[in-house]
Amino acid sequence: MRLGIDWGGTKIEIIALSNEGEELFRQRVDTPRDDYEGCLEAVRFLVEAAEQATGQTGTLGLGIPGSLSPKTGLVKNANSTWMNGKPLDKDLQRVLGRPVRIQNDANCLAVSEATDGAGAGAHIVHAIIIGTGSGSGIAIDAKAHLGANGIGGEWGAITVPWLKPEEYPGPDSWIGHKGAIDRWCSGTGFQLDYKDRTGTLLKGHEIMALKRSGDTVATAVYEAYVSRLARALAMSANLLDPDVFVLGGGMSNIDELYADLPAAMEPYIFSDTYETPIRKAMHGDSSGVRGAAWLWG
């Protein structure tokens, strides 16, 4: 049995998978925000619940919104900032009495979709999270590409490329750079763009409902979002040239994106032809936690 945990900013979820990928157990709890020890205890509780329910023990993989530094072994770049600077793998091994494999949550999405999802069989899968934040992970032959410094796939930290004059320098982000992909290509960025133009904060699905009804402001917000995401994807196409892009997170449920992004990417891609597919994550919200379990694949 393989256990996977997705440690997010709002919830911590566990899944138990058989060797064939069958779901045996799933449970989630609210994340004890700003409470590192409380989060360790939540993981312990979930592991015990899964193993009691299934009568089996399992390997454990963990997806986090950050990564372990190869130099220090400590968590870095996590937007759940209370885990930064912590020896998470060692602390979990102490709490659970077993080794734990840890990867960035976007890498877990990539591994999941490359293993038995929308990117199954592809050599290089670039998985993009467009949810509360925006980041990415890379899977090569269904294995996470961490990189020499533990920052492989940190696409969200880059400024949206080919900025237009009216976009420069872009809004601030928690990363510290203006106009970062994480800020502009996330669902949060989509909502804030609408708020900046109207003074009203709406949810993404509400903005899309207005756009579909012909509202001119909502349409302009959507078109700006498509342009920025397309430029960010085109940068990856020129650098990485993946076999497939897989989109996850709340914004990935906007069906229009899959029709509109290819044409918006085309002017920025350094090739006479470009036919790489852009697909929705097959496992949806489960991809991250499934990918964590497959870290022991």
Automatic annotation (TrEMBL):
Coiled coil: none
GO MF terms held by the record: hexokinase activity
InterPro entries (alphabetical): ATPase_NBD (IPR043129), ROK (IPR000600)
Transmembrane segments annotated in the record for this chain: none
Highest taxon, organism lineage: Bacteria
Pfam families assigned to the protein according to its UniProt record, in alphabetical order: ROK (PF00480)
Protein name stated in the entry: Fructokinase
